[in-house]
Each structure stands twice: as structure tokens, then as C-alpha cells.
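Q: Here's a chain of 156 amino acids. Please give me its 3D structure as C-alpha cells.
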Amino acid sequence: MNQAGLPKDRIADSGGALTQPWNLYLSDQAEQLLAAPSLVKLYQNTGLTSSLAAEDLASGGVSQGVYMIAYEARITTAAGVSSSLQLSFSWTRNGQTITQATTAYTGNSTGTLAATGSLMPFVDDSTPVTVATTLSTSGSPAAVYEMAVALIRVSA
């Protein structure tokens, strides 16, 4: 190996076949790429004025493994009197549905994030990962919010 970590040998032998050191090196690179975290979906929505039913972040199910759900939500227009915003996430582990909800944000302010954080669920094969919101608002104008949720595959 040279300083860049590449084999010093020729890439191909006289017959045009990949040499053993290069075969091992390229196989190792492929394994590292497959093991790297990867974005499954970035869900973003703005101008929301009501609760959202469960939104499938995996578009029909994910492969079994560990995922990270990173999320952020904020009120963009405060309600005339009060508002409450809560996010809830759901996935399946060992055949059972798991649901995790954020604390309801009742600040009714546009100056701070209503919810921000991350979860690291282990998810069963071919099952959905969902996000839903619950918005309560009173007074005029009604509260308006936005949210962003990233589903990232961490490992198999």
C-alpha cells in the first residue's frame, strides 16, 4: 500500500484480470460504502395548518436495521390565543408497534423550535416508519407550522 492506501501492485495482470491486492482493496471499499449511513428520506412540509395523519417515511417499508430519525418543527404563525404542537413517530420492532411522541409544545411562539431531536429505533424488515402531528389551535389567526424529518439508515 502507498500513502493514499492504494495497493502498489499493477491493477491488472498480463491477462487483463484484476490482481489480488486490487481485488481485496476494491472489495473492502465496497463493504465500507454499503456500511455507511444513508439518507432514506427527507420529509419537509411548510404552511401546515392542521394535524397530519401518519406519513410513511420509508415509502412502503424499510430493511431491518438501526435507523436515526432526526426531526425539527416550529410554529411559523402564532395562533391568536394559544396552540399546541406534538410529533409522534411509529415503527415495528420484534413484531410490535412502537410509538414515541415528543412533548407537546404550548409556547405559541415563532421565536423557538417547537420540537427538535432524534431517535435511534431498531426496525423490523419490510415495515413502515411513520411521523404524525397533532395541532390544537385557538383564536384567529390559526397557528401555522413547518417540519422537517430525516430518516437515516445507520446499520443493518
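Q: Can you summarize the key feature?
A: The radius of gyration is 23 Å.
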